[in-house]
Design goal:
It contains 9 helices and 9 strands. The protein is an alpha/beta fold. Helix 1 runs parallel beside helix 2.
Length: about 280
């Protein structure tokens, strides 16, 4: 890789697991930790991340003064070679300019998504807390409730590591699986998921991250171009107790990923800037 940036890919072949939401929250977390950040939307047909950034830019232009990433999308054409060349040009440019590049990918298998995955140094896979979502990582025997074998997305990750090794790059990829939309109830399902993910993580080599709860606020912030990390004094929008808990989950995510390692001059405790420091939250 030509540049110096650390490359974080958000991926899962299953749709709707929270990839774009997590991508935007990581981008803003990194910006708040004073990183210079590039972001690339490889799901430019749906363009959730691009529209999220656009909404943020609009709000910032209207006077909110919000930190923004250097964002680019790679809209798919009918010429895969051209799409690949456009992506590589953007990636090389952003890598040379920034500390971190965050890449959002589509919820389906696509050559451009595979190429993006092959550049991941950190891969984050958000996963809804359901056996349907687990199925893209590993096949579970419904009788014994044991993992039978790795599934198609896990195999794809393995293939993209090989793709990277073929380019002559050291294929060191830290793979994190992040449980998303965790319910407050349904303790049995949660426990089973935890057990199966634990089994699978040893088998295919990912680390499990604590997880983000199911919260309406994630859906509401998109049109505002804001993340949970912007609530409070930055924007004048009130923080509730539930938002405080959600922010704590995000902080644990940032710490779990060790993002400070990719920001020059940042220290392990620097993610504390993401916790709540202002005012009393409203219940
Ligand atoms: N923790 C959460 N709590 C509540 N809603 C959430 C949470 N995370 C994501 N969502 C919502 O779930 C939906 C899917 O999220 P998102 O678009 O980020 O997923 P995705 O994996 O990028 O989807 P796709 O595969 O279609 O690109 C959105 O409506 C989003 O607001
Ligand atoms: Mg998406």
């Amino acid at each position: 890789m030509a540049g110096q940036a650390h490359i974080i890919v958000i991926g899962n072949e299953k749709g709707g697991t929270g990839k774009s939401t997590v991508a935007m929250h990581l981008v803003v977390a990194l910006l708040k930790m004073k990183a210079s950040v590039g972001s690339i939307d490889l799901d430019a047909r749906q363009a959730t991340l691009s529209r999220y950034v656009e909404n943020r830019r609009r709000r910032s232009d209207a006077g909110a003064s919000l930190a923004l990433p250097d964002h680019a999308a790679v809209p798919p054409t009918d010429d895969p070679a051209r799409d690949e060349a456009s992506f590589l040009e953007i990636l090389y440019r952003q890598s040379a300019l920034h500390d971190v590049v965050v890449i959002d990918t589509p919820g389906s298998d696509h050559p451009l998504s595979r190429l993006g995955h092959s550049f991941a140094q950190t891969l984050v896979t958000p996963l809804n807390d359901s056996f349907i979502d687990l199925d893209v990582l590993g096949k579970v025997d419904p009788v014994s409730m044991k993992i039978q074998r790795p599934s198609h997305y896990s195999e794809m990750v393995w293939e993209t590591k090989k793709q990277r090794a073929l380019r002559g790059e050291r294929a060191v990829v830290e793979w994190f699986v992040l449980r998303n939309r965790l319910a407050t109830l349904d303790a049995r399902n949660k426990r089973e998921m935890e057990r199966l993910l634990g089994e699978l993580s040893k088998r295919i080599g990912f680390k499990q991250l604590g997880g983000l709860g199911e919260r309406v606020i994630y859906r509401e912030l998109f049109l505002e171009g804001l993340t949970l990390l912007d609530l409070g004094s930055d924007t004048g929008l009130a923080l509730s107790l539930s938002h405080v808990a959600a922010r704590q989950e995000l902080r644990l995510l940032v710490e779990g990923l060790g993002l400070h390692r990719f920001i020059p001059g940042a220290l392990a405790g620097d993610s504390s800037t993401l916790s709540v420091t202002e005012g009393n939250p409203t219940p």
